[in-house]
Write a structure and sequence with these properties.
478 residues, mainly alpha, 3-stranded antiparallel β-sheet, 18 helices, elongated
């Protein structure tokens, strides 16, 4: 039955009914009444689940696996199965995502998301069978598409799969950043500069060593992100409501996961304790913590880049960042480190997301964690933002960095830090006295040491060779 909107003569609606009564649903919508209620109830973030395509794709994969299992167990007709699978394949291919409109934050432990998927798949399957949307007597969202399932095993399984499908983008971006940093390490291998601790002069190093350390620390997290994502391969599909498998055939879970593994090309396995797996959020806590760690490392690197490029005349000015845009509406000629600044802000958001995930994971009660929607939202948001920020940092900043070689060398030549290299030869007390005198007079350490004759000039030159100050070597005293 169709009727027109009271506010627009161009919009038509169909009537649908659920246990709460009737409601108008746009006639062209593939979603149904329960999705419509959720759209009206949960106007929170303005972020709908279709903004995370891997989640929508994962939901369709779960529904296809369920249909294939139900027909194999003779619970669902072949005709309905084929129609459901065709609808799921279209969604997996990227179609109909615009009809997944419920807000990522929702009450009901993901029921609205699950029903959004059930309704879209059912209405598309009805069309495949030659029926109109909403004619659920021929194929029903709950009875057919959701057969042998509960939100409580479908939604967690789909979220886990979405993270597995999505995390590889972050891994690829991080590997690219690691390569860019390695290339800069090679390029800057001969740029002598001062190392610093507590923002004070320490001992000499090279700019190449500094960038190589950045590459190493990013590489560590690439491996850990890949490893921790494997935790999500254990799913609770088949546990239905609380892990007891009520309303599902005893073989359903095993067969469904076999089908799902083939559909998704992911080697999934069923949790050994489905009751525990239905309520536990431990994998999310661990992976979110890893995302936070990666964000912290990115932010630390960006802080360093901002310091090293500070100035250009009144700061360190050891490196030049690519100039991306004018930096001030009032100060002509000013150019800011906008790319590192943006990455810093992404890092802060990811750190906040991790706290949200931690609190939501702790908030689960008894046999279910109803806070999983916000966990899914924050996890997928963190992965997406980190991926985008990492690509931006590589392409728009790291690749274009240049070194101010003479400036770096001047800092070394005029720093009291090189006195540390003379410690084994002139003694700590003499070294301390020379350093204090250099600071007070503005004279160079090397000139003061020569003047006092504390070490032969030939040996002094040997000790202060860059290669002898940059790595361990045999100490030969005269």
């Amino acid at each position: 039955m169709l009727n027109k909107s009271p506010n627009s003569s161009n919009v038509q609606f169909r009537k649908e009914k659920d246990l709460l009564g009737e409601k108008d649903v746009p006639v062209n919508a593939y979603y149904g009444i329960q999705t419509q209620r959720a759209i009206e109830n949960f106007q929170i973030t303005g972020v709908s689940i279709n903004l995370f395509p891997t989640l929508v794709t994962a939901l369709a994969m779960v529904k296809k696996a369920a249909a294939k299992t139900n027909v194999e167990l003779k619970q669902l007709s072949q005709q309905k199965t084929d129609a459901i699978c065709q609808a799921c394949d279209e969604i997996i291919a990227g179609h109909l995502h615009e009809h997944f409109l419920v807000d990522v934050i929702q009450g009901g432990a993901g029921t609205s998301t699950n029903m959004n998927a059930n309704e879209v798949i059912a209405n598309r399957a009805l069309e495949v069978l030659g029926h109109q949307k909403g004619e659920y007597q021929h194929l029903h969202p709950n009875n057919d598409v959701n057969m042998s399932q509960s939100t409580n095993d479908v939604y967690p399984t789909a979220v886990r799969m979405a993270i597995i499908l999505k995390h590889s983008e972050l891994v690829i971006a991080a590997q690219q950043l690691q390569r860019c940093l390695k290339e800069k390490a090679t390029e800057f291998a001969d740029v002598i500069k001062m190392g610093r601790t507590q923002l004070q002069d320490a001992v000499p190093m090279t700019l190449g060593l500094e960038f190589n350390a950045y590459a190493t620390t990013i590489g560590e997290d690439v491996e850990r992100i890949k490893w921790l994502a494997d935790l999500f391969k254990e799913v609770n599909l088949g546990g239905t409501a609380i892990g007891t498998g009520i309303n599902a055939d005893q073989s359903y879970g095993r067969i469904a996961i076999e089908h799902l593994s083939r559909i998704a090309c992911i080697d999934l396995c069923q949790a050994s304790d489905l009751v525990e797996a239905t309520s536990d959020m431990g994998a999310f806590v661990l992976f979110s913590s890893m995302l936070k760690r990666f964000a912290i490392k990115l932010s630390k690197i960006c802080n360093d880049l901002r310091l090293l490029s500070s100035g250009p005349t009144a700061g360190l000015n050891e490196i030049n960042l690519p100039q991306m845009q004018p930096g001030s509406s009032i100060m002509p000629g000013k150019v800011n480190p906008v790319i590192p600044e943006a990455v810093n802000q992404v890092a802060y958001n990811v750190i906040g997301n991790d706290l949200c995930v931690s609190m939501a994971a702790e908030a689960g009660q008894l046999q279910l964690n109803v806070m999983e929607p916000v966990i899914a939202y924050k996890m997928l948001e963190s992965i997406q933002e980190l991926t985008n920020a990492t690509i931006m940092l590589s392409e728009k900043c790291i690749k274009g960095i240049t070194a101010n070689k003479e400036r770096c060398r001047d800092y070394v030549d005029n720093s009291i830090g090189i006195v540390t290299a003379l410690n084994p030869y002139i003694g700590y007390e003499n070294a301390s006295r020379i350093a204090k005198q250099a600071l007070a007079t503005g004279r160079r350490v090397v000139d003061l040491v020569k003047e006092e004759g504390l070490i032969a000039e030939e040996q002094l030159a040997e000790v202060l060779k860059p290669e002898n100050m940059l790595s361990p070597h045999n100490l030969q005293k005269s």
